[in-house]
Amino acid sequence: MQDWLRERVYSGRLDERLAGKDVVVAGWVQEIRNLGGIAFIQLRDREGTVQLTALKRENRELFKALTTLNRESVVAVRGLVQPNKEAPGGLEVLPGELDVLSPAAAPLPMGVVDKVGVELDTRLNARFIDLRRPGSAAVFRIRSSALRGIRSQFEQEGFVEVHTPKIVATATEGGTALFPVQYFEHRAFLNQSPQLFKQMLMATGFDRVYEIGPAFRAELHDTVRHLNEFTSIDIEMAFSDEEGAMGVLERCLQSAVKRVIEERPRELGALGLTLEVPSLPFPRLTYTKCIELANSKGIDVEWGADLEMDATKAVAEETEGFYFITRWPTAIKPFYAHPFEDKPRESRSFDLMFGEKEITSGAQRVHEPDLLVQRLRDQGLDPGSFDFYLQAFRFGMPPHAGWGLGAERTVMILTGRDNVRDCVLFPRDRRRLSP
Ligand code: AMO
Q1: What's the DSSP call for residue 337?
Q2: 406 lines ligand 1 (CB under 6 A)
Q3: Is the peptide bond before 435 cis (omega within 30 degrees of 0)?
Q4: CATH number of the 130-283+319-423 domain
Q5: Residue of minimum CA distance from atom 20 in ligand 1
Q6: Which ligand 1 atom sits closest to the C-alpha of 172?
Q7: Does the structure show a pLDDT above 90 at 332?
Q8: Which end of the chain has the lower number of beta carbons within 10 A, N or C?
């Protein structure tokens, strides 16, 4: 590596003010057009491309070295910036020195700039190449900004970031979807959700916590919405009911969209998208109302049943953007959802929806230890195996509420992707464990 590489500038920073100056650019050789005496090379970095224009008569050796490179080789070039109306961006660099940092082998596992469509599987198998494509990379830049927006909202509202264990002894979200792991002489599992731990932290006085981390579900689902490992954005807040938690959620999503619009105009452009900041509050529909709506559209679903895709589609036709479904039947929500005091068959739970897609579940939780034991039994669970959790409720546990938001499903919405696999770098699904 040459010392001058330290002076590297991104292609996006090149403008007329640098005309006549020497710069260093570095990146991947995207395209080489050799016309004999002159060659045009498109060099790509994270901000776009810059044209290198090499003249054979100026430097034969450099010309040969540049024009015989395999596509996607990584090089650094030091050269003179010159205005050129025909070059992309109106500027070109006349290379004076070349450092080939890493020659690429040929053929490539997949093309970077080829117009032909590439299957998702091919793209995921060659993900390191796929992510060189502006459209694929845009998803992850948008994801990064969205998470920054959400985090900044948490910080603004006094949440403490925590990290809870991912190797655990019990299920939280139903016993069938667990990945077992051998933990020395014990059988353990990969955690499905930080649920039990974030609730236990409500007994400590932290008051408001958030965690952004992996969650594992051994679900057999092979759909465009399900992953076996996803990123869960979780909060728990003490002295709050479900309304308080819903308020934080809608402000977080608003903040995420604002950040993306501010920080990622180029990426939104690459995806052909314009986003609008959602206005608050998001509409709230009760579960009962959703059942009525679905029934009125000829969908046969009874009160007490989960809302399947056909029912949520019917509801989505009546709404726009984000909306909450509230007051779910207690029997179909997890044991920790608090029943309404005056109407215990309904719970203080909610889902956040976008169209027909669910992206968050949350609730005010049961904080009364006796009721919690009862709710575990009602759901056919053994309170004995939740002892470590129940302990935290017996020595002073404030009422509390929280939610879990799926990062990938949120990114699907923000980037208009149809498949959740597009929104995770290296997806884990029923058929995919590598790369
Ligand atoms: P739930 O199981 O509904 O609730 O999950 C919350 C959110 O996580 C995302 N999600 C998934 N994303 C991709 N693939 C999956 N297999 C998957 N499963 C879930 C979804 C979903 O809305 N403990 C509760 C949350 C709480 O009450 O605080 C929970 O985990 O976006």
Answers
A1: B
A2: yes
A3: yes
A4: 3.30.930.10
A5: 406
A6: 23
A7: yes
A8: N
Helices (H) and strands (E) in the chain, counts: 12, 16
Q: How far apart are CA 59 and CA 61, in angstroms?
A: 6
Residue of 47, 250, 358, 368 marked catalytic: 358
Burial-class residue 300 by CB neighbours within 10 Å (0-12, 13-18, 19+).
exposed
CB 361 within 8 A of CB 233: no
Q: CA 161, CA 395: separation in Å to the nearest integer?
A: 24
Distances (CA, A) of 225 to 57, 59, 251: 57, 55, 24
Alpha helices in 225-355 (DSSP H): 242-263, 265-270, 287-296, 309-316
Helix (H) or strand (E) holding 69: none
Only one residue has tokens 């002894």, namely 169
CATH of span 2-102:
2.40.50.140
> Is 70 exceeded by the pLDDT of residue 175?
no
Distance from the alpha carbon of residue 45 to the mean position of ligand 1, in angstroms? 36
Q: Hey, where are the domains in the chain? A: 2-102, 130-283+319-423
Q: Which residues pair with 230 in a beta bridge?
A: 215
Written as six digits, the tokens of 161 are: 């970031």
pLDDT tens digits, 280-316: 999 999 999 999 999 999 999 999 999 999 999 999 9
Q: Is 226 an annotated catalytic residue? A: yes
* Mutation to probe ligand 1, out of 150, 325, 361, 430 (largest number of atoms < 8 A from CB): 361
Per the listing, tokens 């927006």 go with: 149
* Total residue count of the chain as it appears in this document: 435
pTM of the model: 0.96
